[in-house]
């Protein structure tokens, strides 16, 4: 995903503080509360904790959140643990993302909430999904849960690179474990056979405006998306204007392009197998997409 600054020079999206805050505000508009994605990961972690409660030598449950961004899922997990008085003391969470800016925002949130910091140890690591075990060798063969949330897996827009990620997932999952699992969410927009309400796709295509929380003098203005296809890859382009509420003048502009690869439903199982994985469960969430649970192939 790429963008340009106001002078027209190309910059990488997810790299400016403006974009990081905009993203957190904007995503709420098309990610309704009823999509309790965090329930999926919470239930897996709780099951693992229950199975290990009598094993004092089992070590921590290692959870790897790929494409974590600002830590949206992490926040939900930690808040749920705190609010339900369900400790995650046996869990170690690795937040992995290629954008230092997005992760820095997540770290700042935790720093401002010491009650959440106490829930579980968290380590932030700059890496892409296609390379994370090389950057983070301590999770190789020792990860109990690896997940790619929010449909971000489809931003890996070639099957070759998706295979690289799947092989990384296989390498990360705990060796000789019958419970270690990887979970990938593929949203409906990227699954050709799933009939979706056009309004579901339009939720993130329409213009959007919002006020900065960190600097109330600033407002964010997102344009409507320009959508086009190149083969199986969907491209979404839009402009983000950061504007002074007092003067009405732009203080920053970014030209953003998202890409999403349609899932090839015929080749998908074979791609998973080539990575040394097997699909053990398929779980649909109405209006959102499909969660694929994967384990190392026997």
Comma- or semicolon-separated keywords:
single chain, 298 residues, alpha/beta, 7-stranded mixed β-sheet, 5-stranded antiparallel β-sheet, 9 helices
Outline:
The chain is of the alpha/beta class and 298 residues long. Helices cover 30% and strands 30% of the residues. It is globular, with a radius of gyration of 19 Å.
Q: How does this structure look, described?
A:
There is one protein chain. This protein is of the alpha/beta class and 298 residues long. It has 9 helices and 14 strands. The protein has helices at 17-30, 37-52, 72-84, 100-111, 114-117, 132-135, 159-172, 198-202, 268-274; strands spanning 2-4, 10-12, 61-66, 91-97, 122-126, 145-148, 181-187, 208-211, 218-222, 226-230, 233-244, 250-261, 277-285, 289-296. It has a 7-stranded mixed beta sheet, sandwiched between helices. Strands 8, 9, 10, 11 and 12 form a 5-stranded antiparallel beta sheet that branches. It has a two-stranded antiparallel ribbon with strand order 1-2. The longest helix is centred in the N-terminal third of the chain and has 16 residues, at 37-52. The protein is globular. The two termini are 36 Å apart.
Order of helices and strands: EEHHEHEHHEHEHEHEEEEEHEE
Specify the overall morphology: globular
What percent of residues are in strands? 25-35%
How is the biggest beta sheet arranged? 7 strands, mixed
Q: How widely separated are the two ends?
A: 36 Å
Gyration radius (Cα, Å) is: 19 Å
Residue-averaged pLDDT, rounded? 90
Order of adjacent strands in the largest pleated sheet: 5-4-3-6-7-14-13
Q: Level of helix content?
A: 25-40%
- Helix and strand content put the structural class at alpha/beta
Query: How many separate helices?
Result: 9
Strand runs, count: 14
Low-confidence parts lasting 5 or more residues at pLDDT below 50? 6-12
């Amino acid at each position: 995903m790429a963008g340009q600054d106001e002078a027209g020079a190309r910059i990488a999206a997810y790299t400016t503080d403006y974009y990081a805050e905009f993203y957190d505000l904007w995503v709420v508009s098309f990610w309704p509360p009823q999509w309790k994605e965090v329930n999926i990961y919470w239930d897996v972690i709780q099951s693992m904790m229950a199975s290990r409660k009598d094993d004092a030598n089992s070590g921590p449950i290692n959870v790897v959140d790929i494409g974590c961004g600002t830590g949206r899922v992490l926040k939900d997990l930690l808040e749920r643990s705190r609010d339900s008085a369900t400790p995650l003391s046996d869990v170690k969470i690795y937040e992995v993302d290629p954008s230092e800016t997005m992760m820095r925002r997540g770290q700042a949130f935790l720093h401002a909430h010491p009650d959440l910091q106490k829930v579980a140890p968290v380590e932030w690591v700059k890496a892409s999904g296609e390379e994370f075990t090389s950057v983070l060798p301590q999770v190789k063969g020792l990860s109990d849960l690896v997940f790619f949330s929010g449909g971000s897996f489809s931003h890996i827009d070639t099957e070759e690179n998706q295979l690289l990620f799947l092989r990384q997932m296989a390498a990360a999952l705990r060796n000789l474990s019958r419970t270690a699992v990887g979970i990938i969410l593929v949203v409906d927009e990227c699954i050709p056979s799933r009939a979706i309400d056009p309004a579901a796709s339009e939720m993130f295509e329409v213009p959007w405006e919002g006020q900065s929380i960190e600097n109330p003098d600033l407002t964010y203005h997102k344009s409507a998306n320009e959508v086009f296809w190149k083969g199986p890859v969907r491209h979404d382009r839009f402009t983000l204007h950061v504007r002074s509420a007092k003067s009405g003048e732009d203080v920053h502009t970014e030209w953003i392009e998202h890409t999403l690869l349609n899932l090839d439903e015929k080749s998908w199982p074979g791609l998973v197998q080539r990575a040394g994985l097997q699909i053990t469960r398929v779980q649909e969430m109405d209006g959102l997409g499909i969660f694929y649970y994967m384990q190392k192939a026997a």
